[in-house]
Amino acid sequence: MFATVLSALTVATIAVAAFGVGRPLIRALRVGDGDRLSVGVWSISAGLIAVGLLLAVLGQAGLLYKSLIGVLTLVAGFWGIGELSRSQSRRQVSARSQKANALDSSGAMFRSKPPRWLAGGILTLAGLAAAGSFIGAAAPPTAGDALCYHLELPKRFLLEQALVYLPDSDNSANPLLVENWYLWALALDGGVAAQMVHWGLGVLLALAAVVLATPVLGRPWSWCVGCLVLLVPGINNQMTAPLNDVALALFTTLALAAWWRGAIDDDGRRWFVLAGWMLGGALGTKHSAILFAIAWLLVALASLWRQRSYRRIWLTGAAIIATVALSVSGIWYLRAAFYTGNPVYPFFDEYLGARAATDPSGLSVDHAPPSFPADKAPLGRDLRALLTAPWQVTMHPERFGGRGHQLGALFLATLPGLACCRRLRGMGTFLSISAVYVVGWTMLRQNVRFLFPLVPLLAMPVVWVWIEIRRLPRVPASLVGALTIGVLIIHAAAGTARARGCLAVCLGLESRDDYLLRREPSYRAAAWANALLDPGIRILSQEQRAFYFNARVARENVYRRRTGYDRHVASAAELARHLAGEGFTHLLLAETTHGSGIRYNPTLSKLADLEHSGTDANPFHCLTEYRFTSDDGTVRRYRLMKVRH
Amino acid sequence: MIAPWRKPSDDGDTLVRRRQIAIARRVIAATLLPPDEGRPRPPRATAWRAWLWAAWMLVVIGFWILSW
Q1: Any chain A CB within 8 A of the CB of B38?
Q2: How crowded is residue A92: how many other Cβ atoms within 10 Å of its Cβ?
Q3: CB burial class (10 A; 0-12, 13-18, 19+) of residue B23?
Q4: How does strand A586-594 pair with strand A552-555?
Q5: What is d(CA A537, CA A549) in angstroms, rounded to the nearest whole number?
Q6: Distance between CA atoms of A321 and A6, rounded to whole angstroms?
Q7: B28 located within any domain
């Protein structure tokens, strides 16, 4: 329990420090005054981007010392406390002006608030789902992608005290803004704190959705939008793991919210600076932000065609947004271009990068997989795929990256209800951006997680449909209402039920070690290696989940693709000599022995198991071996081998 | 007696009072006037569309539950 509280306090400290950094930026831009929610959301988000950039600069300079990060956090934290107390002294005036603003900005149509039972009910359900995901986030991380790179890379950066490029990790040339916040949490506490950072980003996303929806639906109904975002199963699920899709959705939402204030509400060009800052955050988080920016740009250009009076201010805004966004995110794309020759590595590497690498002997080796392989587009890439995508994504999310990331049934079920609603200013823009984004998503990579930036955009029309239900005849209105409530209850129940397996470790009734031994397949090997081997060893691993190893771990599949080592060795002894020459001291072999779950490429296992001549000693010595059974029944066999040379 | 001419004050207290008066006006107006006073009621949605949408919801949610 104490460990959980400590991790939660670490995340609270990070939030206050981010507020301390972001609040002066927001004040300098003179945005959000008079609305405490907006000030909080803008300040923390802007501050997180600024801190992420600072850590990137420190990393490039080789100054990623835990002590330095701790001191900077303390300074920013105390500054944040000062900013909070300053805000507190203005609270009375702000609260009153906020009420006045809410009445003014929401327009006559939205003077009515959501019924008390609806507001209270959806808030309760969202609270339950968020509490469930918090319990999940308080358990040690076990998500595959997190242990492969979202946490593994920041751990390595901290060990190396620099933002190093790792040739045997496909992801070390990615945009890594979010991973820098995980690095921040790892420096102050550990993996659980990093995981809680992503949970906090989920809450921030819900609040950002409120900020985005306020000018369109008015503040009272916008709270329903925020709650609905929290109740989306994929968002709620991902809040329990340190990935980056929720963070991407946060920044695309805020970028759009700032652009709306500058371009549609005509509140001043300073909003474009903020929109650029947030878009820079999105581009620094994940490549799919580029697709979102293109969709946004196309819709804005189409709107300009119809509203020529806005042409000048919108073009100025686009220039400001692009300049600021590229300045904020440029470091990641320059870094990728420097190390790989391709600023958007590994995408479009066929055209932009040095695709066919050569090993030291000059031999051409395996080509990297194509940027957009067929298995990443299970629907295909044609018109039929586009038309069936909403149904398929809703009903069969396991084909698109996993059922855990699903968007739920509410969007597909509710959005056609717009045919029964009156038109509302803004809905067309948000739906058009979503439609263009979905076209790009269908043509590129069909993973349901990549649709998260659309969740706040689609949640707004859903709430607008709820508002308009009162215009329906009584019986269909009651049926629609009952179905909607039922789905929301299922979403909340799924989020809460997910916490069951994590409650004991969250409350301290089970130790984090015991939990990991029970849930994380690679943990036993990592604990063994950490306890008995020198941290300076170097492991070549078929298992990519390397976060819990103190030693340096290289991914075998990437190493094989880079060097083609398997073409040059014909025996176990030759393999051992080759690996020793490359500096590897140990192997971690992983095989699936039973079940239909994960499959490992068997190249390394087969080579290591080749018969050696009877006179020589076995070039590999097995230090530990065990089997792990996953929840889906898949049995994996792990062997940690020492390379004799 | 003629009152001396005085510029409106911009100090914080006066601003707070002005906001309080504005809020009070809104509260009184919202209390005394029904919210839809003087505005036409929005037209009702056509029944066949409403039924079609309700049926669609039933189908989608039914299939979605079965797909779990």
Answers
A1: no
A2: 10
A3: middle
A4: unpaired
A5: 10
A6: 39
A7: yes
CA-based nearest residue to A431, from A454, A408, A409: A454
A443/B39 Cα distance (integer angstroms): 47
Q: Which helix (H) or strand (E) holds A428?
A: helix A427-443
Contact residues on chain B for A115, CB-CB shorter than 8 A:
none
Bridge partner residues of A629 (DSSP): A635
Is the pLDDT at A308 greater than 60? The verdict is yes
For A331-344, how does the pLDDT look when each residue is reduced to its tens digit (9 = 90+)? 999 999 999 888 99
* Contact residues, chain B, for A473 at CB < 8 Å: 44-45, 47, 50-51
Touching check for A409 and chain B: CB below 8 Å?
yes
Query: Looking at the domain A521-643, which fold is it?
Result: D-Maltodextrin-Binding Protein; domain 2 (3.40.190)
Give dist(CA A168, CA A189) in Å, integer. 27
pTM: 0.88
pLDDT reported for residue A313: 86
Are A207 and A103 spatial neighbours (Cβ–Cβ below 8 Å)?
no
B32: containing domain: 12-36
Q: What is the DSSP letter of A364?
A: B
pLDDT, tens only, A152-198: 999 999 999 999 999 888 889 999 999 999 999 999 999 999 999 99
A416 chain-B contacts, CB cut-off 8 A: 53, 56
H-helix or E-strand spanning residue B46: none
Tell me if B41 is assigned to some domain. Answer: no
- Nearest of A215, A286, A303, A220 to residue A250 by alpha carbon: A286
Average pLDDT, chain A: 89
User: Helix (H, G, I), strand (E, B), or coil: what is residue A625?
Assistant: strand
Residue B56, in any domain of the structure: no
Overall average pLDDT of the A97-119 stretch: 62
- Characterize the bridge pairing of strands A586-594 and A538-541: parallel
Neighbouring CB atoms inside 10 A of A571's CB total 15
pLDDT of res. A365: 45
Chain A partners of B58 at a C-beta cutoff of 8 Å?
Answer: 479, 483
Taking only the tens place, the pLDDT of each residue in A389-407 is: 999 999 999 999 888 899 9
Find the mean pLDDT for residues A263-289: 93
Q: What is the tally of structural domains in chain B?
A: 1
Residue A356's pLDDT band, with cuts at 50, 70 and 90, is: very low
Count of all residues that appear for chain B in the document: 68
C-alpha distances in angstroms, A25 versus A49, A109, A583?
A: 11, 34, 47
| For A416, nearest residue in chain B (alpha carbons) | B53
Distance CA A198, CA A497 (A): 19
Question: Percent of chain A having pLDDT more than 70?
Answer: 92
Looking at the predicted structure, is the pLDDT value of residue A373 above 90? no
Q: Dump strand ranges (E) for A389-544.
A: 538-541
SS (H, E, C) A220-262: HHHHHHHHHHHHCHHHHHHCCCCCCHHHHHHHHHHHHHHHHHH
A89 and B CB contact within 8 Å: no
Distance from the Cα of A206 to chain B's closest Cα (Å) equals: 24
Spell out the domain ranges in chain A: 2-354+447-454+492-497, 377-446+455-471, 521-643
8-state DSSP, A264: I
d(CA B19, CA A85): 23
What is the mean predicted confidence (pLDDT) over A420-443?
Answer: 92
ipTM of this predicted complex?
0.86
In a domain, B65, yes or no: no
Tell whether the model's pLDDT for residue A613 goes beyond 70.
no
Q: pLDDT tens digit string along A602-612?
A: 888 888 888 76
User: Residue B36: pLDDT band by 50, 70, 90 thresholds?
Assistant: low
